[in-house]
Write a structure and sequence with these properties.
about 280 residues, Rhomboid-like fold, 2 domains, two-stranded antiparallel sheet, 11 helices, about 60% helix, elongated
Length: about 280
């Protein structure tokens, strides 16, 4: 993990006078502008049409309206929960950006923003869903609590306990109202936030997949020429044994040494060695 650093990636994105502005602040400014625009459109009576065109709907996304995966967060009605969400992005997002750097922070936020509608699109074939105005502030709080679990908050409660209580409370609210969309979004957001931080800390890694070679490894046959008794003239050569017989002889050598082989076993192994050499050289 990089931690706090003097690199440009960990410094403010810009300054407004003497006030430093991070990417988290820019996100909040954009959402506030969208909230003001939504409120004005509600006043003029066209907000419903805008929401129908921009809000996420798994049915419409599956029909090709993929812009809804991005525009759903721009439909923000003015509510107290929206204000709380913006404060979460400012407070916790700013600290996460300082610690991880701007690029990793934006990667975290992009995942929190896009994963819920993507998952809901996957299950939309069987269970049509729709959402609007989700901004990812709660996911940033979960990431902050994972990174700093022992920081004190309200009433001296540690962040890890506050996060646990809120996740459990939201889950119970969704279950009691059979709000499967909120429950799935909560699970995806919480799981990704925890995974992102733990992966950045090096505590979780993706499983590596290595493909086995389709060709079996050739076993090297020992050279028996120096230790092989001379053959009697006119003696018939022993036929090449099967691979199973050769493997058994190699195992015997590994356990008891080459001196444990009988003259017949040496002949079989030597014939297998000669045959293998002929195959490699291309001779019949």
């Amino acid at each position: 993990m990089n931690g706090y650093s003097n690199s440009d990636d960990h410094q403010p994105l810009m300054y407004w006078g003497s006030v430093p502005l991070y990417a988290a602040h820019v996100l909040v400014i954009g959402f506030v502008v969208s909230m003001i625009a939504t409120a004005l459109l509600m006043f003029t009576g066209v907000a419903a049409g805008l929401e129908n065109a921009l809000a996420f709907s798994s049915v419409h996304v599956l029909k090709g309206e993929i812009w809804r995966l991005i525009t759903y967060g721009l439909v923000n009605r003015p509510t107290l929960w929206f204000a709380i969400d913006m404060m979460m992005i400012v407070w916790f997002g700013r600290e996460l950006e300082k610690f991880f750097g701007r690029r990793k922070f934006l990667g975290l936020y992009t995942g929190l923003y896009l994963l819920p509608p993507l998952v809901l699109t996957l299950i939309g074939t069987w269970f049509p869903t729709q959402i609007a105005g989700q901004t990812g502030g709660f996911g940033l709080f979960i990431a902050f609590a994972t990174l700093y679990p022992n920081v004190g908050m309200l009433f001296n409660l540690l962040t890890k306990w506050v996060a646990t209580i809120l996740v459990g409370l939201y889950a119970l609210i969704a279950l009691s109202g059979r709000d499967w969309v909120s429950l799935i979004s909560l699970a995806v957001t919480t799981g990704f936030a925890v995974y992102f931080v733990r992966h950045a800390q090096g505590l979780i890694s993706l499983p590596s997949m290595t493909l086995r070679s389709a060709k079996p490894k050739l076993r090297t046959l020992p050279d028996l020429k120096s230790d092989r008794p001379e053959r009697t003239v006119g003696r018939k050569e022993s036929p090449v044994g099967s691979m199973a017989e050769v493997d058994a002889l190699l195992d015997k050598i590994a356990k008891s040494g080459i001196g444990s082989l009988t003259s017949k076993e040496r002949a079989v192994l030597d014939s297998a060695q000669q045959t293998l050499k002929q195959r490699r050289s291309g001779r019949p």
